[in-house]
Amino acid sequence: MARAIARVQADWEGHLGEPVGEITLSGLPSALTHLLPDALRELADTHPGIVLRTHDVDLAEHEFAGLTSEVDIVIAHSLVSARPAGTEGLTVVPLAREPIDVAVADAHPLAGRASLHPTDVVDRQWVGVPIGYPFNSVLTSIEHVTGRDLDVVQRIRDNRLIEAIVASSDQLALLPRYTTPRNAGITLIPLTGVETRRWVVAVMRPDTAERVAVRRVLDALKRTDEGRASPEAGTPPSR
């Protein structure tokens, strides 16, 4: 029934010639930082009848799907699959792929390296994320490749706090390439030998995905990533 109602609403929006209405969106801050500002500008210019209401959350991968009962679009991520854990039966639309790099302080001995392998970082102390959060899968992969346990001394959700700790210590962390500030006192270095690119996706109820206004929001989010998918955008910040 909900899907049928959504189709009727989509047909009505098409009849009006312009998608309108309020769309609610929730997602992790680092992905929203990458996608949302330009998408908001585009929507204001091209579809002023769409009102996008956003709030940020940072959850374990399997928890994002539960938000679809509360909001129209959930921005989630995964380093394992384009369909995050727990999203079975929901509509998932890929929006972006983003590299996750090793972050070190500018003065760290590894800061001059062009790339790193798991064997280069297995003996270092790490600032990690909570168990179940997508970035933790990279740390698990490093342990698998090297056959050794990592020394994870902190587990923190907030990237800004992680950046501050890394910049003032000899500890390592994993941070997203596109949204880590360029002048935060840290250097980002690509990690080879394990999967380090995350999928950023929109997760929705199937009936919600039928709405024309929702599809226009998704189009704007995807175009934001396409506009940044350049060699310059893919280069880790230098010191």
From TrEMBL:
Which residue ranges does the record assign to the LysR substrate-binding domain?
17-223
Q: Does the keyword Transcription apply?
A: yes
Q: Which UniProt keywords apply?
A: DNA-binding, Transcription, Transcription regulation
- Annotated Gene Ontology cellular component terms: protein-DNA complex
Looking up Gene3D superfamilies in the UniProt record yields: Periplasmic binding protein-like II
Q: Which Pfam families has this protein been placed in?
A: LysR_substrate (PF03466)
Q: Which GO molecular function annotations are given, in alphabetical order?
A: DNA binding; DNA-binding transcription factor activity
Q: Which domain of life is it from?
A: Bacteria
Q: Provide the family line.
A: Belongs to the LysR transcriptional regulatory family.
Q: How is this protein named in the record? A: Bacterial regulatory helix-turn-helix, lysR family protein
Q: Which organism is it from?
A: Brevibacterium casei S18
